[in-house]
Amino acid sequence: MLEMEMLIRAFLLWCGQILAAFLVFWQNLEKKFKRRSLGDAPSPPIVPLSVNYHFTRKCNYKCGFCFHTALTSFYMPLEEAKCGLRLLKDKGMKKVNFSGGEPFIHGGDHIGELVRFCKQDLRLDSVSIVSNGSLIRKSWFRKYGDHLDILAVSCDSFVDETNERIGRCGETNRAGAHNKHVDKLHQIHAWCREYRVSFKINTVVNTFNKDEDMSEHITRLNPMRWKVFQCLLLEGENCGENALRDAEPFYISDEDFQKFLDRHKSVPVLVPESNKSMQNSYLLLDEYMRFLNCVDGGKKPSKSILDVGVDNAINDAGFDEAMFFKRGGVYEWSNEDKKKSLDW
């Protein structure tokens, strides 16, 4: 009987030890999953839904506040650029915006073939361009207009003298003493209507236009969107010791920017972007196909997507995805229905 009691006690002791070991194991497992839920787990990869490809830094204008200046004259050969764009498409890109510099500075066919490739071969939802407009010709629309969803023209003032002071001018848009920038804006607006390309206007609010009332002009042109940006300072681009521009005289306060917005609150297509909402909410790809990280107030490049792939490069982009969605980064950006419509 005594031996049986001892066997039972030993068995119970062994069961207790097994149970204790299991509890320790379970607690450690629970802590492990709890740490992962608090952020130790790897974040899901960033999807490059909308990419701004600044494929050139060269420009024929001299805007004093420019934050993407001619630090190099390089631009990617067409076939290499197409390889990079395909990599982005494979990772989820649905919209690409071609910018500069001035996208038409290397001739209409280079930017035209990029546009055609993205729409016809990659079948992206939206292909757009931001341009100062001065080098665009009607013949370009005839050749490539079917492949372009949106054309945004930068216009900071409807007063010729103000455009001159800002530097929104070049030899190609002068006629004697007359600045032709606004005239060209209206011409491009007409071409967009003719070739069924959505027309957009971008404006940078700065010292020289902050008191202007553009409501009547914008309402008459009726763009799909009027993007209104606060002048942004970026170290090494338009401020600092080695910058090619000095945008300090153009910089305005948050209060002045808000006054401009309040003055134009009746314009229904106005889309405002302060420095806070703009700085890190764009995926910027430079001329070497490197993502540009603006978190620290400059532009720190990643490695090229052609060398390390999209996933590795985009981790260094400093991209604020939440702000991208908050500022309205996704909108009705495809123009295919309009192009098919007989009444546009």
UniProtKB/TrEMBL annotation:
Its cofactor is [4Fe-4S] cluster. The keyword S-adenosyl-L-methionine applies. Residues 41-270 form the Radical SAM core domain. Keywords: 4Fe-4S, Antiviral defense, Iron, Iron-sulfur, Membrane, Metal-binding, S-adenosyl-L-methionine, Transmembrane, Transmembrane helix. It holds the Pfam family Radical_SAM. The chain crosses the membrane at residues 6-26. GO terms for biological process: defense response to virus. The keyword 4Fe-4S applies. InterPro entries: Aldolase_TIM, RSAD2, RSAD2/Viperin_antiviral, rSAM, rSAM_sf. PROSITE patterns: RADICAL_SAM. GO terms for molecular function: 4 iron, 4 sulfur cluster binding; catalytic activity; metal ion binding. This is Radical S-adenosyl methionine domain-containing protein 2. It comes from Frankliniella fusca.
